[in-house]
Amino acid sequence: MAEEKKVLVENEDGDTAEINLKASGETEGKIEEPIEEVPTDLTETLKKEIERLKNELNEKQERIMRLQADFDNFRKRTAKEKTELAATIEQAFLKDLLPLLDNLSRATDAVENGESSDVESLKKGIEMIKQETVAAMGKHGLEPIETEGKIFDPNYHQAVMRVADPEKEEGAIAAELQRGYIARGRVIRPSMVQVVSNE
Questions:
Q1: Among residues 97, 124, 94, 98, which one has the least CA distance to residue 110?
Q2: How many Cα atoms sit within 13 Å of 145 on the Cβ side?
Q3: Quick check: 21 pLDDT over 70?
Q4: 146: phi then psi, degrees, rounded to nearest 5
Q5: How far apart are CA 185 and CA 183, in angstroms?
Q6: Model confidence, pTM
Q7: Among the listed residues 199, 155, 146, the one whose alpha carbon sits nearest the alpha carbon of residue 173
Q8: 119 SS3 class
Q9: How far is the CA of 75 from the CAs of 67, 70, 79, 80, 166, in angstroms?
Q10: Do the Cβ atoms of 127 and 161 come closer than 8 Å?
């Protein structure tokens, strides 16, 4: 039987291991180093880091959910404010039209009761109501589209008829059949017009 010799081997970290060598210089099997256990303080450090990351993830998820809830509330609040604003504008507009309704009621009552048989006075009353209507709508941004002496523009005018008129240039508006209107820079109804076509 070969003689065994115990040898201490030191690794890079400074740890040592004791191995048995045969006298012939050959090793009996592999050199076995003891399996090192993970130090307890390292395990605790890893557990703490995992716990910290879990807490951080939970906090971020809660923050995202709070932000999403805040956004939903903001969207609902904005929609409600828009509805309320539209209702307020509509009420203001209707309130401005009430005097016109009152004047129309007075005019029809006067005609029905025979108080106003004079056509001229009736005409003046209707003209006053028309002026009040234009003023009330103008207050809310309504403006008529000008057609007199203008050249046809498809952005503002709708041609429904072509007429020959040698005294006017080609494409000029010959007559307005229905008044068009702009509200705060946007066409809400184009003017219906006759357009000169001398060809």
A1: 124
A2: 28
A3: no
A4: -75, 135
A5: 6
A6: 0.53
A7: 146
A8: helix
A9: 12, 9, 6, 9, 60
A10: no
